[in-house]
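Title: Prediction job returns without error message
Component: structure pipeline
Severity: low
Priority: P3
Assignee: unassigned

Description:
Job completed but the reporter wants confirmation the result is attached to the right record. Sequence as submitted:
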Amino acid sequence: MKKVKVYSICTKSHERLRDEYYLPSLPRNLEPIIYNIDTQGEGGGKYKSDSFKYAIKNKLQMTLDAVNENMGDIFIISDLDLYYFREFDPHELIDGYELAGQQAFSKTGRQTWICGGFYICRANENTKRWIEHCIDDSPVSFNGLEQSALNKWKDKLKLKSKVIDKRFLSPRQGSGTQHL
């Protein structure tokens, strides 16, 4: 079976997570593609800081690169704070969909929100248009944060999407580090 590419952004603050936890836990059927970037701006990568927003901008561009590189196939976007406990079949999780991801926390209680920290994407013209809209809209409508833009445009463009069944995630979902 061909390996599925899994794309991640790594800044200086996440190198230890990448090297000591994420990469050693990555299942053999996944091929890591890590974009190592220098943070820019103040904040040391803390949520909503300038350096965090810079990493998100790069993450969105990385996602567009992934769509273009994998056209007609699937790929995964994964934050480095995930720890994998077993192999899984990404094709099974996305079967029949363009987007399948971990359920995101939503202040409005929306059960269909997909987390920007882990999702499987089918690279096609629809998902390319989706991520292009997110790149343009995230800095304007969402102060540089991607998750709301991802879900807004997922819904507006009517991407065929689903939240991954919770049996694939740890019971700690929503409380920090995620486990697959």
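Comment from assignee: result matches the submitted record. The CA atoms of residues 70 and 123 lie 6 Å apart.
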